Amino acid sequence: MVAAARELFAERGYQAVAADEIVRAAGVTRGALYHHYGDKQGLFRAVFEQLELEVTAEVEAATKDAPDLATGLLFALKAFLDACERADIRQISLIDAPAVLGWTTWREIEAEHGLGLVIGVLRQAVEQGLVKPLPVDVLAQLVLSAVNEAALMITHADNPAQARSDAEQVLATWLIGLLAE
Description:
HTH_TetR; DNA-binding transcription factor activity; transcription cis-regulatory region binding; DNA-binding; Tet_transcr_reg_TetR-rel_C_sf
Protein backbone atom coordinates (compact mmCIF):
# COMPACT_ATOMS: atom_id res chain seq x y z
CA MET A 1 0.00 0.00 0.00
CA VAL A 2 2.84 2.39 0.83
CA ALA A 3 4.50 1.77 -2.55
CA ALA A 4 1.26 2.36 -4.45
CA ALA A 5 0.47 5.49 -2.45
CA ARG A 6 4.00 6.81 -2.87
CA GLU A 7 3.82 6.50 -6.63
CA LEU A 8 0.40 8.17 -6.84
CA PHE A 9 1.25 10.97 -4.38
CA ALA A 10 4.53 11.68 -6.17
CA GLU A 11 2.85 11.79 -9.55
CA ARG A 12 -0.20 13.91 -8.74
CA GLY A 13 0.01 15.16 -5.16
CA TYR A 14 -1.96 14.24 -2.07
CA GLN A 15 -5.12 16.20 -2.83
CA ALA A 16 -5.53 14.71 -6.34
CA VAL A 17 -5.38 11.09 -5.17
CA ALA A 18 -8.47 9.42 -3.71
CA ALA A 19 -8.18 6.70 -1.07
CA ASP A 20 -10.15 4.35 -3.32
CA GLU A 21 -7.57 4.80 -6.06
CA ILE A 22 -4.76 3.90 -3.68
CA VAL A 23 -6.40 0.71 -2.45
CA ARG A 24 -7.21 -0.34 -6.03
CA ALA A 25 -3.61 0.25 -7.10
CA ALA A 26 -2.36 -1.70 -4.07
CA GLY A 27 -4.83 -4.53 -4.60
CA VAL A 28 -6.26 -4.28 -1.09
CA THR A 29 -9.56 -3.27 0.44
CA ARG A 30 -10.41 0.10 1.93
CA GLY A 31 -10.74 -1.75 5.24
CA ALA A 32 -7.05 -2.65 5.01
CA LEU A 33 -6.19 1.02 4.64
CA TYR A 34 -8.20 1.90 7.74
CA HIS A 35 -6.85 -1.07 9.71
CA HIS A 36 -3.17 -0.32 9.02
CA TYR A 37 -3.10 3.47 8.71
CA GLY A 38 -6.39 4.83 10.05
CA ASP A 39 -7.05 6.93 6.97
CA LYS A 40 -5.43 8.40 3.86
CA GLN A 41 -3.53 10.93 5.95
CA GLY A 42 -2.07 8.16 8.11
CA LEU A 43 -0.91 6.37 4.96
CA PHE A 44 0.57 9.62 3.68
CA ARG A 45 2.51 9.97 6.92
CA ALA A 46 3.91 6.44 6.47
CA VAL A 47 4.99 7.33 2.92
CA PHE A 48 6.62 10.54 4.13
CA GLU A 49 8.45 8.75 6.94
CA GLN A 50 9.75 6.16 4.47
CA LEU A 51 11.12 8.97 2.30
CA GLU A 52 12.74 10.60 5.32
CA LEU A 53 14.48 7.33 6.20
CA GLU A 54 15.79 7.05 2.64
CA VAL A 55 17.06 10.62 2.48
CA THR A 56 18.74 10.30 5.88
CA ALA A 57 20.49 7.12 4.71
CA GLU A 58 21.65 8.87 1.52
CA VAL A 59 23.03 11.82 3.47
CA GLU A 60 24.73 9.53 5.98
CA ALA A 61 26.33 7.53 3.15
CA ALA A 62 27.63 10.75 1.60
CA THR A 63 29.38 11.71 4.83
CA LYS A 64 30.99 8.28 5.09
CA ASP A 65 32.21 8.45 1.47
CA ALA A 66 34.10 11.68 2.12
CA PRO A 67 37.86 11.65 2.59
CA ASP A 68 37.57 13.73 5.78
CA LEU A 69 34.90 15.14 8.06
CA ALA A 70 35.03 18.71 6.69
CA THR A 71 34.45 17.44 3.17
CA GLY A 72 31.79 15.13 4.58
CA LEU A 73 29.79 18.13 5.78
CA LEU A 74 29.77 19.54 2.26
CA PHE A 75 29.02 16.12 0.71
CA ALA A 76 26.09 15.77 3.12
CA LEU A 77 24.70 19.15 2.07
CA LYS A 78 24.99 18.23 -1.60
CA ALA A 79 23.40 14.80 -1.04
CA PHE A 80 20.46 16.38 0.80
CA LEU A 81 19.86 19.00 -1.88
CA ASP A 82 20.24 16.34 -4.62
CA ALA A 83 17.59 14.21 -2.91
CA CYS A 84 15.27 17.19 -2.59
CA GLU A 85 15.38 17.68 -6.37
CA ARG A 86 13.83 14.25 -6.95
CA ALA A 87 10.20 14.50 -7.99
CA ASP A 88 8.89 12.24 -5.23
CA ILE A 89 10.77 14.06 -2.47
CA ARG A 90 9.80 17.46 -3.86
CA GLN A 91 6.09 16.66 -4.11
CA ILE A 92 5.60 14.52 -1.03
CA SER A 93 8.15 15.86 1.46
CA LEU A 94 8.40 19.52 0.52
CA ILE A 95 5.05 20.47 -1.02
CA ASP A 96 2.44 18.15 0.47
CA ALA A 97 3.84 17.15 3.88
CA PRO A 98 3.79 20.62 5.49
CA ALA A 99 0.19 21.13 4.29
CA VAL A 100 -1.17 17.63 4.91
CA LEU A 101 0.52 16.95 8.25
CA GLY A 102 0.80 20.52 9.46
CA TRP A 103 3.99 22.50 9.90
CA THR A 104 4.67 21.27 13.44
CA THR A 105 4.26 17.57 12.64
CA TRP A 106 6.27 17.96 9.43
CA ARG A 107 9.14 19.55 11.39
CA GLU A 108 8.96 16.89 14.13
CA ILE A 109 9.26 14.07 11.58
CA GLU A 110 12.09 15.88 9.77
CA ALA A 111 13.89 16.27 13.10
CA GLU A 112 13.24 12.66 14.10
CA HIS A 113 15.04 11.38 11.03
CA GLY A 114 17.67 13.98 10.20
CA LEU A 115 18.47 15.70 13.46
CA GLY A 116 20.23 12.74 15.04
CA LEU A 117 22.54 12.46 12.06
CA VAL A 118 23.32 16.19 12.12
CA ILE A 119 23.99 16.10 15.88
CA GLY A 120 26.31 13.11 15.50
CA VAL A 121 28.35 14.65 12.70
CA LEU A 122 28.61 18.03 14.42
CA ARG A 123 29.51 16.47 17.76
CA GLN A 124 32.29 14.53 16.05
CA ALA A 125 33.47 17.70 14.31
CA VAL A 126 33.59 19.62 17.60
CA GLU A 127 35.43 16.75 19.37
CA GLN A 128 38.02 16.68 16.57
CA GLY A 129 38.50 20.43 16.83
CA LEU A 130 37.20 20.90 13.29
CA VAL A 131 34.19 23.02 14.29
CA LYS A 132 34.26 25.79 16.85
CA PRO A 133 33.07 24.61 20.28
CA LEU A 134 29.42 25.63 20.19
CA PRO A 135 26.31 24.10 21.80
CA VAL A 136 25.91 21.17 19.38
CA ASP A 137 22.19 20.58 19.94
CA VAL A 138 21.37 24.19 19.10
CA LEU A 139 23.77 24.28 16.17
CA ALA A 140 22.35 21.04 14.77
CA GLN A 141 18.77 22.35 14.96
CA LEU A 142 19.79 25.54 13.17
CA VAL A 143 21.73 23.65 10.48
CA LEU A 144 18.78 21.30 9.88
CA SER A 145 16.40 24.26 9.73
CA ALA A 146 18.64 26.10 7.27
CA VAL A 147 19.00 23.17 4.88
CA ASN A 148 15.26 22.45 5.08
CA GLU A 149 14.54 26.09 4.29
CA ALA A 150 16.95 25.91 1.35
CA ALA A 151 15.10 22.85 0.04
CA LEU A 152 11.78 24.68 0.33
CA MET A 153 13.19 27.75 -1.44
CA ILE A 154 14.49 25.61 -4.30
CA THR A 155 11.20 23.70 -4.57
CA HIS A 156 9.12 26.86 -4.83
CA ALA A 157 11.53 28.95 -6.92
CA ASP A 158 10.75 30.19 -10.42
CA ASN A 159 14.27 29.13 -11.35
CA PRO A 160 15.11 26.06 -9.22
CA ALA A 161 18.58 25.62 -10.74
CA GLN A 162 19.60 29.16 -9.80
CA ALA A 163 18.00 28.85 -6.38
CA ARG A 164 19.93 25.60 -5.81
CA SER A 165 23.20 27.20 -6.85
CA ASP A 166 22.63 30.22 -4.63
CA ALA A 167 21.47 28.17 -1.63
CA GLU A 168 24.36 25.74 -1.92
CA GLN A 169 26.87 28.61 -2.12
CA VAL A 170 25.44 30.38 0.92
CA LEU A 171 25.08 27.23 3.02
CA ALA A 172 28.57 25.99 2.15
CA THR A 173 30.04 29.38 3.05
CA TRP A 174 28.11 29.36 6.32
CA LEU A 175 29.26 25.84 7.18
CA ILE A 176 32.87 26.70 6.34
CA GLY A 177 32.53 29.70 8.67
CA LEU A 178 31.82 27.28 11.52
CA LEU A 179 35.19 25.62 11.08
CA ALA A 180 37.79 26.25 13.74
CA GLU A 181 40.89 28.23 12.73
